[in-house]
Amino acid sequence: MATRTDALTLEVVDLIATVVARYHEEYEDAAAQHSLTGAQARVLTLLAREPLPMRRIAVRLKCEPSNITGIVDRLEGRGLVERQPDPDDRRVKLAATTAEGKRTADHLKDSLHFAREPLAGLSVAERTVLRGLLQRMLGVDPA
């Protein structure tokens, strides 16, 4: 059985770290093209999927709710996000993208090429295996 320090494991860990670093670098560059910080872009991208309460945004992004409040305030000031009442609990406010926020999130997603282009060079079978391996590493049940 492979140990955590065998050469192959260490090489794979380094390769994963390089992929993650390159992705974050491209993500930050793409965010800057829209005059957003990386954190603002991540919140906007998350909200483009569905409106969420601040606490759930914080949990998903693994940060403090007070940080999310500031980020949402700045996005709201730019007209990219708005606060809405939660239809299930009137005490809770949801952050949701505006039409402009959704367009910006879509442009941001479309401008990320780092992972998409190399993945397109893999066959469907290879991408399927890679997805399964990543899900297994993360302890995610296949959908």
Overview of the structural elements:
By secondary structure, the protein is mainly alpha-helical. It is built from 7 helices and 3 strands, in the order H-H-E-H-H-E-E-H-H-H. It has a 3-stranded antiparallel β-sheet with strand order 1-3-2. The radius of gyration is 18 Å and the shape is globular.
Which descriptors apply to this entry?
single chain; 143 residues; mainly alpha; three-stranded antiparallel beta sheet; 7 helices; 64% helix; 12% strand
Topology at a glance:
Blueprint: H1 7-33, H2 38-49, E1 52-53, H3 54-61, H4 65-77, E2 81-86, E3 89-97, H5 99-110, H6 116-120, H7 124-138
Antiparallel strand pairs: 1-3, 2-3
Beta strands, count: 3
Q: How many strands, what sense, and barrel or not for the largest sheet? A: 3 strands, antiparallel
Helix/sheet category: mainly alpha
Quote the beta fraction: 5-15%
How would you spell out the order of helices and strands?
A: HHEHHEEHHH
Helix content: 55-70%
In whole angstroms, the N-to-C terminal distance is 29 Å
